[in-house]
Design brief:
alpha/beta; 18 helices; 19 strands; about 625 residues; 4-stranded antiparallel β-sheet; globular
Length: about 625
């Protein structure tokens, strides 16, 4: 290799590393400095929202420089090849322009709102001017590259080593600082099947055998036939499960992470000596930025994979959205989504090395979230897989959303439901592997297992699809199963409504004998005093509350569910009342019918404690 070629490659490496660190700096300003980038299809941070989300791995601090160095280095290699084979047409200045163009277009494309063509033209123009400036100073530039490239490369290496060591070192340090729990303290395993509605499980009477293994396992514990999530979408529902708080009590919005106002279950158990760990597939609202990792000594969300390197550049994030590329490679999934097998394996690998200390593990599975893509061997289990139309999807970082679902022909909508059911069956198989392995290791009998979903999914019910947009049964009625070896009765099916917000109080009471410090009440009342119990909480704890706020910030919609009725109230003043026993499909709104006036008033009284603290909402709630 000639000295001239080495200088170009060195310059390419310098430009790549510098571009990577520039991107990291820009993203840090977006996240922590309040820089206003418009929210767009890439959803890179949100303007003016407290810190917002990047939806990127923290390892981007070294992955981005490495990715840019590889990208621009590959460009230099191509340029050198062209210089060799067509030297009269391709000279050094042309190759330098290529290097700068690739770097500038990737940085410019950090802005998700900028049109791709506009970005190309802008990058080309800037690269022309920068090339002229650099080539007039080529000797000085080459000297700078010789000096600066090793420095940036060394900084990248130090960051990589530091980040790779950070988590295991922190885990060991935090573990060494907590007391040893009492002998015989049980493990706690919290499993959340993201986006799985109760109505699609054979455990709850569904006509398809979607959960044959869970059906058998659940017979050994307690099944809640009417469990309800506190929210119809991920983050506030998870926060409620972790803190026992209703969504209106905490920060947990579409663009605002949970900010830790209340103690989480992981924090409480860590203080009591549990080895705490989380394994999440939902990297949109369960990853490090969400605030859910509080209290976990070990937390696995993003992986270090080629896909994550690809997403560490503006160029890669822009390219991944292109439907033509999806069609070309036949890939329609969320990029780098962990499947159930990965979550199960990652947990089992970790648990096998935990020793005798009890663990609290949180497992989040995402296979039933759209796009519904079961493994090939199960894809046609409940019907032929529907056609894929990449041009009808919007692809975003960590998302692949089918547009126009309300216009789907019946056959395609059925194909979506068939695929959804197959993903549930796939997770059922992986759950059986999880439980069977823990059983073989002698851990299952001494483990409190809670299995649930954070919310459900809609397939045209009430003319709605997906989730996060209503409080009807398909999105808030979720599975909830609990077992604990022979320490709780088996074969119980609870018919009374129960809320997932009672989960942390339940775990605390089973581990310590007291629900403190969590609000709500232990679900143990359903098997210790009979279904339903007789207690009454003055704040309405017996009423199951759910709520959501539209992704644009309004309106607020709340529901309250008792043993028979669901009352839904919107900030706009809209009201709905359904008799869930007589009308499980919620097709007949009873508001306005004379026979149910007193029921509406009673349900309003149940809801009142949950909005009384907000004067504006309180004034809008009908009082009679």
């Amino acid at each position: 290799m000639t000295e001239r070629a080495r200088d170009l490659l060195r310059l390419a490496l310098l430009l790549g590393l510098a571009a990577g660190f520039t991107e990291v700096a820009v993203l840090a300003i977006v996240k922590y400095g309040g820089l206003a980038l418009p929210e767009g299809r890439l959803a890179l941070g949100v303007v003016g929202q407290r810190h917002g989300y990047l939806w990127l791995s923290p390892h981007i601090v070294w992955m981005s420089p490495v990715a840019y160095a590889v990208l621009i280095g590959a460009t230099a290699t191509v340029g050198l090849g062209l210089m060799r084979f067509i030297p009269r047409r391709i000279q050094r200045r042309h190759v330098v322009w290529m290097l700068l163009f690739v770097g500038f277009i990737s940085l410019i494309w950090i802005n998700p709102r900028l049109h791709a063509l506009a970005g190309l033209l802008l990058a080309a123009g800037i690269a022309v001017q920068a090339t002229r400036w650099l080539e007039r100073r080529s000797e000085g530039v080459d000297r700078v590259a010789r000096l600066a490239t090793p420095v940036l490369a060394g900084a990248t290496l130090l960051l990589m080593v530091g980040m790779l060591l950070r988590d295991p070192v922190s885990e060991r340090r935090r573990l060494s600082m907590v007391p040893a729990p009492a002998p015989g303290t049980p493990n706690v395993l919290l499993v959340i099947l993201d986006t799985v509605r109760a109505a699609s499980l054979s455990l709850y009477g569904y006509g398809r055998p979607t959960t044959p293994n869970l059906d058998a396992r659940a017979a050994r514990g307690v099944v809640f036939d009417r469990a309800y999530a506190a929210s119809p979408w991920t983050l506030p529902s998870h926060v409620s499960v972790f803190t026992g708080r209703w969504p209106y009590e905490v920060t947990a919005g579409w663009f605002v992470p949970y900010e830790g106002e209340f103690t989480t279950l992981a924090e409480v158990l860590a203080e009591r000596g549990f080895h705490t760990a989380g394994f999440v597939a939902n990297t949109v609202y369960d990853a490090w930025e969400s605030g859910l990792s509080r209290g976990f000594m070990h937390y696995e969300d993003y992986e270090i994979t080629p896909e994550e390197f690809f997403l560490s550049t503006g160029f890669g994030r822009k390219l991944v959205h292109r439907p033509w590329l999806r069609r070309l490679v036949g890939f329609y999934d969320i990029l780098d989504r962990k499947d159930a097998a990965e979550i199960t394996t990652d947990f089992l690998d970790w648990q096998g090395d935990t020793g005798s200390r009890p663990f609290f593990a949180f497992l989040n599975y995402l296979d039933s979230h759209e796009p519904y893509l079961p493994p090939e061997d199960l894809a046609n289990r409940f019907g032929p897989q529907g056609p894929r139309h990449p041009e009808l999807h919007t692809y975003q970082i960590r998302r692949a959303i089918r547009m126009g679902r309300e216009d789907l022909p019946p056959a395609e909508l059925q194909a979506e439901l068939d695929a959804y059911d197959a993903t549930i069956l796939y997770q059922d198989q992986e759950l059986e592997r999880l439980f069977a392995t823990l059983d073989d290791r002698g851990e299952l009998d001494n483990t409190i297992v809670l299995l649930m979903s954070d919310h459900g999914e809609q397939f045209g019910e009430h003319g709605l699809h997906l989730h996060g947009n209503a409080l009807y049964d398909p999105v808030v009625h979720v599975p909830l199963v609990l077992w604990f070896g022979d320490r709780i009765p088996s074969g119980i099916r609870v018919q009374e409504p129960a809320s997932l917000r009672d989960v942390p109080a339940t775990v605390a009471s089973l581990v310590t004998g007291s629900a403190d410090p969590f609000p709500g009440r232990s679900l143990a009342r359903y098997w210790s005093t009979g279904a339903g119990g007789t207690e009454t909480d003055p704040r309405g704890a017996d009423a199951v509350v759910s709520e959501f706020t539209d992704i644009r910030g309004a309106p607020i919609v709340k529901s309250v569910t008792d043993h028979r009725f669901r009352y839904i109230w919107s900030e706009r003043g809209e009201q709905e009342l359904y008799d869930l026993l007589a009308d499980p499909g919620e097709s007949r709104n009873l508001v306005g019918e004379a026979d149910y006036e007193q029921t509406v008033l009673r349900m309003r009284r149940l809801m009142a404690p949950h909005i009384r603290g907000d004067r504006v909402l309180w004034e809008r709630l009908p009082q009679n």
